[in-house]
Design a protein that fits this description.
It holds the Pfam family Sulf_transp. The protein is mainly α and 366 residues long. It has one domain. 69% of the residues lie in helices and 0% in strands.
């Protein structure tokens, strides 16, 4: 069902998370690398973001139950069935492999990369979105209507009384105000004070608070906007099916990416030479990649990501939320994602080694 108000509010929370993290920590929020790092090389940065995201799940379950994500279920084990274990495992692996080879995901490329107007991220977003739409179009005609859940409702159909919003209006607007105050007033103030102490223990505390806040607000935004519900995402990707298309998630570029573009264009470095003059609140410099290299493995990786996304409607950050709300299927997805990430990194290591070997054995020309 079309949810313009809820999706717009959720997108604002995601903007709070990404805008605050960039301003204070000097880096984007990339959940594919965060999840893999938390599983293989945990540290205060990735651990606090994961903890904050899971905390948002517990918060929603307790206080905003109307927004608990929806997932299709199936007794079948066919990979073509949305709720099957095979579908979750296959899509999770493809998302992990694709985000590894494509160096990013929906959070890293689409939200943070496009917000920086980075050409490589714009290309990546175009490739995985188009691939996901095509994948959904191919699979959609075989999927029973009930498997997609709320996404089968026509885009022209919505609750004109905005019942869910009105029932939770006080809590949502209070959270919105508190989120703004936390992200742009309280947290920067605390981190400035902590940075001035020049103490390693307090520095760790500051990084933990920053990551926890970012993960909580990002998770809250995903859940409230509907992006954590695979049914909502699948509806958004079903643009060739007028009975299933749900444009709600267009709120993400409008209320997350556009404000970031307007803010970051003057505050965030656009090239390495600006790293000296522009600095984040808490760190000594921005930690950003400025490469715009487009390679065939990069394009292939994002296409693979798109296939996985189109199969299940789940990408890394919603995948983490599914670990809380989607039972064993959520666990299967996460494990498959980590396996895909590992495979992608092995492929890249092999390619790098092959390049070095070829370069060293190439005859010199005098």
């Amino acid at each position: 069902m079309f949810t313009p108000v809820e999706s717009s509010l959720g997108a604002i929370f995601i903007q709070y998370a990404t805008g605050s993290y960039m301003a204070t920590e000097g880096k984007g929020v990339g959940y594919s690398s965060t999840l893999y790092g938390a599983a293989t090389k945990p540290n205060v940065n990735n651990g606090s973001i994961v903890a904050g995201t899971l905390l948002s799940c517990a918060f929603v379950k307790k206080l905003l139950a109307a927004f608990i994500p929806e997932y299709p279920s199936s007794n079948s084990n066919k990979a073509s069935d949305l709720g099957s274990t095979s579908n979750y495992c296959t899509s999770g692996f493809l998302i992990g492999l694709g985000s590894s080879l494509g160096h990013g995901c929906t959070s890293g490329h689409m939200i943070c990369g496009v917000s920086r107007l980075r050409w490589r991220s714009i290309v990546a977003t175009f490739v995985f979105t188009i691939t996901a739409v095509i994948t959904r179009a191919i699979l959609d005609h075989n999927a029973p209507a009930e498997a997609v859940g709320e996404a089968v409702v026509s885009a022209s159909s919505y609750d004109s009384n905005f019942t869910v919003f009105n029932e939770n209006k006080t809590a949502l607007l209070s959270l919105l105000a508190a989120g703004f105050a936390n992200s742009y007033l309280l947290l920067p103030y605390l981190l400035k004070k902590i940075k001035a102490k020049h103490d390693e223990t307090w520095t760790l505390v500051g990084r933990f608070l920053s990551g926890l806040s970012t993960g909580f607000q990002f998770g809250l935004g995903l859940i409230i906007s509907g992006m954590a519900s695979s049914s909502k995402v699948l509806g958004f990707l079903s643009i060739f099916n007028k009975d299933k298309f749900d444009p709600s998630l267009l709120a993400i570029p409008i209320f997350t990416i556009l404000p970031n573009i307007l803010t970051w264009s003057s505050t965030v470095p656009t090239n390495e030479s600006e790293l000296i003059e522009k600095k984040p609140v808490f760190e000594n410099k921005y930690d950003l990649n400025f490469s715009n290299e487009i390679t065939y493995p990069f394009l292939a990786g994002n296409a693979i990501f798109g296939v996985g996304w189109g199969m299940s409607g789940i990408c890394p950050a919603p995948g983490l939320i599914g670990l809380f709300f989607n039972g064993r299927n959520g666990a299967y997805w996460i494990l498959s994602f980590l396996a895909g990430q590992f495979t992608g990194k092995q492929i890249e290591a092999y390619q790098s080694k092959s390049k070095i070997t070829t370069s060293s054995t190439k005859p010199k020309v005098n």
